[in-house]
Amino acid sequence: MAHDEQCLTSRPVRILTPPLQENASTGLPPPTRLALPDSIYFLDDSGNSDISLFGFIRVPWVGGWRAADAAWATFLERLQVSPHFSYTPGYPLHAVDLAAGRGRLLHPKDGTAPTALQKSEAASVVLQGLQVLSQVPRLAVGSVYRRGANREDLYADLVEMVNNRHAEAGSSCQFIVDGNGTERALRAAHRRLPTDRRHVLGDPLLVPAGRLPLLQAADFVAHAAYQSLVRHPRRAFMWDWYPRFFPAAGALMNLGRPL
């Protein structure tokens, strides 16, 4: 997973939860039941040595994922006809590289350096992607950060916060996170939730962003949120992108712990 950095959308996420009680007639546990979440969260991280940050996209399970995925797929199709770079389906888009005008997308095989126009157009890909997300019905975004914290601790507090909010609403959710499946600390954060008040269902589904386009979209959200926070002088053009396209998200939430 990169800091500052066909698909699974047609396959439903199956979340199996243990039964609450035994079968009274046989003494055997009843068949495992299928629990489906009300919402899906797609998460990616950003940050530097001082700041950890997670950005996320939340969509309703019923209809929301399909609508968001279709909108993002249309956006990617438009990139294929760009005269400024050669985008091919499946190429992993990373906001940090696009904003900086670097990466293989802008470096053809002959080794020619990208022009200023190409770099500008690459950065505008992030802008266009955020605009697309802002127009998807029932899609919401958010971001949390903490200074002086590692990614795992921030993630654990985010999971707890989201779980509490869904408990209050009487709803449930599932997390899908950019990862390669080895992130044990992220799984541990889910397993620490109280079993009698658990509304973030199951372990996080850890998927490389290159395999799931909406995780690349979450990367765009995370990097835009990060730049709105740190306000790097070379990325001044990005400072207002996050609040401009997602005013309902409000300010970035600081999950700092009191000393």
List keywords for this structure.
single chain, about 260 residues, alpha/beta, six-stranded mixed sheet, 7 helices, 8 strands, about 35% helix, globular
What does this structure look like?
With 259 residues, the chain is an alpha/beta fold. It has seven helices and eight strands. The protein has helices at 64-79, 95-100, 116-134, 151-169, 184-191, 213-230, 241-245; strands spanning 15-17, 33-35, 39-47, 51-60, 140-147, 173-178, 205-207, 253-254. The strands form two sheets. The chain has a six-stranded mixed β-sheet. It has a two-stranded antiparallel ribbon with strand order 1-2. The radius of gyration is 20 Å and the shape is globular.
Topology:
Blueprint: E1 15-17, E2 33-35, E3 39-47, E4 51-60, H1 64-79, H2 95-100, H3 116-134, E5 140-147, H4 151-169, E6 173-178, H5 184-191, E7 205-207, H6 213-230, H7 241-245, E8 253-254
Parallel strand pairs: 3-6, 5-8, 6-7
Antiparallel strand pairs: 1-2, 3-4, 4-5
Helix pairs in contact: 1-3, 3-6, 4-5
Provide a brief overview of the structure.
With 259 residues, the protein is α/β, with parallel strands linked by helices.
Total helical segments: 7
Our Rg estimate from Cα atoms comes to 20 Å
Distance between the termini: 30 Å
**Residue share in helices?**
25-40%
Provide the residue-averaged pLDDT.
84
Instruction: Give the overall form.
Output: globular
Beta fraction: 15-25%
Biggest pleated sheet: 6 strands, mixed
Question: H/E element string?
Answer: EEEEHHHEHEHEHHE
Number of extended strands: 8
**Which ranges are low-confidence, i.e. pLDDT below 50, for 5 or more consecutive residues?**
1-33
Strand order of the largest sheet: 7-6-3-4-5-8
Derived from helix and strand composition plus strand pairing, the structural class reads: alpha/beta
